[in-house]
Write a structure and sequence with these properties.
- By secondary structure, the protein is α/β, with parallel strands linked by helices.
- The protein has helices spanning about 15-20, 25-30, 35-40, 45-70, 70-80, 85-100, 125-135, 155-165, 175-190, 210-215, 230-235, 265-275, 300-305, 330-340, 345, 350-360, 365-375, 375-380, 385-400, 445-455, 480-490, and strands at about 105-110, 110-115, 170-175, 190-195, 220-225, 240-250, 280-285, 310-315, 325-330, 410-420, 430-440, 460-465, 470.
- It folds into three domains: about 15-100, no CATH class; about 105-115 and about 380-499, Aspartate Aminotransferase, domain 1 (Alpha-Beta Complex), CATH 3.90.1150.180; about 125-375, 3-Layer(aba) Sandwich (Aspartate Aminotransferase, domain 2).
- It contains 21 helices and 13 strands.
- The strands form two sheets. A seven-stranded mixed β-sheet has the order 3-9-8-7-6-4-5, with helices on both faces.
- Strand 4 (about 190-195), helix 10 (about 210-215) and strand 5 form a beta-alpha-beta unit.
- The radius of gyration is 29 Å and the shape is elongated.
- It starts with 12 loop residues before the first helix and ends in a 10-residue tail after the last helix.
- Belongs to the SelA family.
- Its main location: cytoplasm.
């Protein structure tokens, strides 16, 4: 609450108290018919808490009016209100807000396609349908239909992953960090793991590869320098305690200029020479050459399998476009050892993740099918003309809303840049179209307006730059323009100084 109690100047304390006493007591409000109905719908404790919050808001409003205007204005404000109806309505609104899902559907107008903080990849209709069916029915999760005995929960996705990548076997756990930790714990629990110093990446949320390795029990051995490493560096580090060679694909940053790296096929040959498994942490799961979509080269899962990687891991919810999962591909004997590790039980995926992943993978039977069905790929591949049309539609809606406030705000469409996100393609910007709302002469208004947009329902997230709101239309879904318009209608531009 703002500190409006400190200095009252010429305002009499008695006037202030007299005005505040006009607000009804909580116990009296609890006897109102409208409130009793809300108690029946929710519960008394929750309703009582909401009443206290509404009364506190009223007190703040009254004290502000007394401080900034006059005691008489505060009295007039109260007298003009239908107080009982107003309080009941406000309490009901608060209760309605509290009953909404905390994990709210959101409008992503940031232009970041795989937005980690907004849930990463959207699932395809096929994946959503499979999740709905699996969640609403008993399923063949861990049963062999032919024998009637217990089966493997991984069999369906294992077959699909092997078909699509050429791997001998596969396993799925709850995320890629877990996949890496499981591999390290299985093959290098008390031994040394050799890794290039330039691949000691932070994978988001302040989790770092060395920390994951430490939790697995493996001992880290760094070789090379930040920007250069050679195959001899790996070979010179191998000793009787070496258990595994690790390569981490640096998908979330790039080192440019004077660099040298060791390819996975060379590292695999070195591993074969010393009978050491090679773990290839690929990060994003790319199924086909993304250069066809105008992006830079990223190694595909099939390419890595063909290069001889013993164990390959990636995320399911990045460019692959599926649910959160850690996908593990590799040699059958190594995958079987990982399945036998007790840690697998702790990090295994549930039936809904498996259903969503199966639905996603089935879209990859052909490249054309994947581009047509998987939202992440569809957004990357959107046509510039379609994006420009979206921008004009959004701009037109916003101009209609703010037609009376053209001196306070400016609305225009502009070319912009989208990003893939999710730790992939850090240097790549995808040409896009944006709608820009500017607040000339009102410093800080964009920050306040963005907060109000985020606090609307559903929340709307956009970018902020130079005291402007920037809505990138690439990441908008059907119906999002209407949602942005509703949120914008609540900005109270007539009081822009107080937004």
């Amino acid at each position: 609450m703002r500190n409006v109690y400190k200095s009252w100047g010429l305002i009499k304390i008695t006037d202030k108290n007299e005005i505040l006493r006009k607000l009804p007591a909580v116990d009296k409000i609890l006897e109102w018919k409208g409130i009793i109905q809300l108690i029946d719908k929710y519960n008394r404790a929750l309703v009582k808490k909401s009443i206290r919050e509404v009364l506190e808001d009223f007190r703040e409003t009254l004290l502000t009016k007394i401080q900034e205007e006059s005691a008489q204005e505060a009295k007039n404000y109260l007298d003009e209100l239908q107080l009982e109806d107003r309080i009941v309505a406000l309490v009901e609104n608060r209760l309605d807000g509290k009953s909404r899902p905390a994990l709210a559907p959101a409008v992503n107008a940031t232009g970041v396609i795989v937005h980690t903080n907004l849930g990463r990849s959207l699932l395809s209709q096929k994946a959503r349908d499979m999740i709905e069916r699996t969640g609403s029915h008993y399923s063949t999760l861990e049963i062999d239909r032919e024998s009637g005995e217990r089966g493997s929960r991984y069999s369906n996705v294992t077959e699909l992953l092997c078909q699509l990548t050429g791997a001998e076997s596969a396993l799925v756990v709850n995320n890629n960090a877990a996949a890496v930790m499981l591999a390290l714990a299985t093959f290098a629990g008390d031994g040394e793991v050799v890794i290039s110093r330039g691949e000691l990446v932070e994978i988001g949320g302040s989790f770092r590869i060395p920390d994951v390795m430490k939790q697995s029990g493996a001992e880290l051995v760094e070789v090379g320098t930040t920007n250069r490493v050679y195959i001899e560096d790996y070979e010179n580090a191998i000793n009787e305690r070496t258990s595994l060679l690790l390569k981490v694909h640096t998908s979330n940053y790039k080192i440019m200029g004077f660099t040298s790296d060791v390819s996975i096929d060379k590292l695999s040959k070195l591993g074969d020479k010393h009978e050491l498994p090679v773990l290839d942490d690929l990060g994003s799961g790319v199924m086909f050459d993304m250069r066809d979509l105008g992006l830079g080269y990223e190694p595909t899962l099939k390419e890595r399998v063909d290069s001889g990687g013993d164990i390959i891991t990636c995320s399911g919810d990045k460019i692959l476009g599926g649910p959160q999962a850690g996908i593990i591909l590799g040699r059958e004997n190594l995958i079987e050892k990982m399945k036998q590790n007790p840690l697998t039980r702790a990090i295994r995926v549930d039936k809904l993740t498996l259903a969503g992943l199966e639905g996603t993978l089935k879209s990859y039977y052909s490249k054309e099918k994947a581009l047509a069905e998987i939202p992440t790929l569809k957004m990357i591949n959107l046509d510039s003309d379609e994006l420009r049309d979206r921008a004009y539609k959004l701009s037109s809606r916003l101009k209609d809303i703010f037609t009376d406030f053209q001196k306070k705000i400016e609305i225009k469409i502009s070319e912009g840049k989208s990003r893939v996100g999710g730790g992939a393609y850090p240097l790549t910007e995808i040409p896009s179209w944006t709608v820009v709302i500017s607040f000339p002469g009102f410093d800080g208004a964009a920050e306040k307006a963005a907060r109000k947009m985020r606090m609307s329902y559903p929340p709307v997230f956009c970018r902020i730059s130079d005291n402007s709101l920037i809505f990138d239309v690439r990441t908008l879904l059907e119906g999002d323009i209407d949602k942005i318009a509703r949120a914008a209608s609540g900005l109270e531009v007539e009081n822009i100084e107080r937004i």
